[in-house]
TrEMBL record:
It holds the Pfam family YkyB. This is YkyB-like protein. It comes from the Bacteria. The lineage of its organism: Bacteria, Bacillati, Bacillota, Bacilli, Bacillales. Residues 120-153 are annotated as: Disordered.
Length: 153
């Protein structure tokens, strides 16, 4: 099956998935889609690594860098590899004034585009019916015994 989406369509899908992943309760699949799509675009020479930026939210309060990737009209950040520090220029602080162009793609369309492009599929979760649920069972009550509140009752 031929995949005929343009670089711009894929970049817009990555942008949409990335935007939703930031607020999604279960975002692992969305971030995996973003990462796989960007890596595939870079290996196909359809996207390029521009340089390194200092991360806005470093882990464990240490300075951390991320790789700036240009894909279509959009810019994304991803975690650097060891060789990125050797071959990419460090651009310093993130430019807070730049914004990616607005996108009007819904999440389902974006996920479909990226999963077809990367071949990555979400893992199936166990259904609620298969999970053991604890139901409320009242304690058996003896008709002839009434619990007493104190010794004097």
């Amino acid at each position: 099956m031929a995949f005929d989406k343009t670089d711009s369509d894929i970049a817009q899908a990555i942008f949409t998935v990335n935007r939703h992943a930031k607020t999604a309760p279960d975002n692992q699949y969305l971030y995996a889609l973003k990462k796989e799509a960007l890596v595939l675009m870079i290996t196909q020479k359809r996207a390029e690594k521009i340089g390194l930026h200092f991360s806005k939210n470093p882990r464990k309060s240490q300075q951390q860098s991320s790789v700036l990737v240009k894909c279509g009209n959009y810019y994304f950040h991803m975690l650097p590899k060891k060789e990125d520090f050797e071959c990419l220029e460090h651009l310093g602080q993130l430019d807070e004034t730049y914004r990616n162009p607005p996108s009007r793609m819904n999440l389902k369309t974006a996920k479909d585009i990226l999963s077809n492009f990367t071949g990555l599929r979400p893992q199936k979760k166990e259904t609620a019916a298969s999970q053991s649920t604890k139901s409320y069972k009242p304690r058996p009550v003896d008709r002839f015994y009434t619990p007493k509140k104190s010794y004097f009752d």
